[in-house]
Amino acid sequence: MSYHRERFELDEKDRKILRILVTNARTPFSRIARELGLSEASIYVRIRRLEKIGVLRGYTASIDLAKLGYTIRALIMLKLSPDRYREAISQIKVFSNTIDVYEITGEFHIVMKVVARSNEELSQLIDKLGSIPGVLETRTLYVLRTIKEESVSSVLF
């Protein structure tokens, strides 16, 4: 993922629209229009523009993974071989039970946020990651308790 993207300036009404959609992506245009004192047509045009320029990438549901049995969370750091880096990344980014994958600086190259239903499932996940060609070392940080978990969108808007 590249961080050298075009930057867009949003006006206050665009920010308010995004704030409303982050809270509830199913909010009807009519309600957004009422809250902002704009017409539904104006809301429609603004949302379509935000989609077109890539600021609004989609609409998602907030899912409680614990209610589906995924009560274990962990961060797994991976050290990769330079000569098999791309090959390893292509397998890591589609790995099951993975929430996020980041390329990082420091001793390790990758950190993954994963979920599991049991310690055994987490252990199997770690073993499978370790067997990927190009993965030299793994280090797992077991999450004891989530203190704060927010989407980036809710923090910024």
Give structural attributes.
2 domains; 6 helices; 157 residues; four-stranded antiparallel beta sheet; Alpha-Beta Plaits; Arc Repressor Mutant, subunit A; alpha+beta
Strand portion, in percent?
A: 15-25%
Q: How far is the first residue's CA from the last residue's CA?
A: 22 Å
Number of domains: 2
- Text of the CATH class of the largest domain: Alpha Beta
Number of strands: 4
The coarse silhouette is: elongated
Strand order of the largest sheet: 2-3-1-4
**Structural class by secondary-structure content:** alpha+beta
| Largest sheet descriptor | 4 strands, antiparallel
What's the helical proportion of residues? 25-40%
Which CATH architecture of the largest domain would you pick?
2-Layer Sandwich
CATH homologous superfamily grouping of the largest domain: Lrp/AsnC effector binding domain/regulation of amino acid metabolism (RAM) domain
Whole-number mean pLDDT: 91
Helical segment count: 6
- The unreliable regions are none
Task: Give a quick precis of the structure.
The protein is 37% helix and 19% strand.
Write up this protein.
The mean pLDDT is 91. The protein is an alpha+beta fold and 157 residues long. A hairpin with a 6-residue loop joins β2 (98-103) and β3 (110-116). A 4-stranded antiparallel beta sheet has the order 2-3-1-4. It has 6 helices and 4 strands; from the N terminus they run αααβαββαβα. The protein has 2 domains: 12-52, Orthogonal Bundle (Arc Repressor Mutant, subunit A), CATH 1.10.10.10; 65-142, Alpha-Beta Plaits. The protein starts with 11 loop residues before the first helix and ends with a helix. α2 crosses α3.
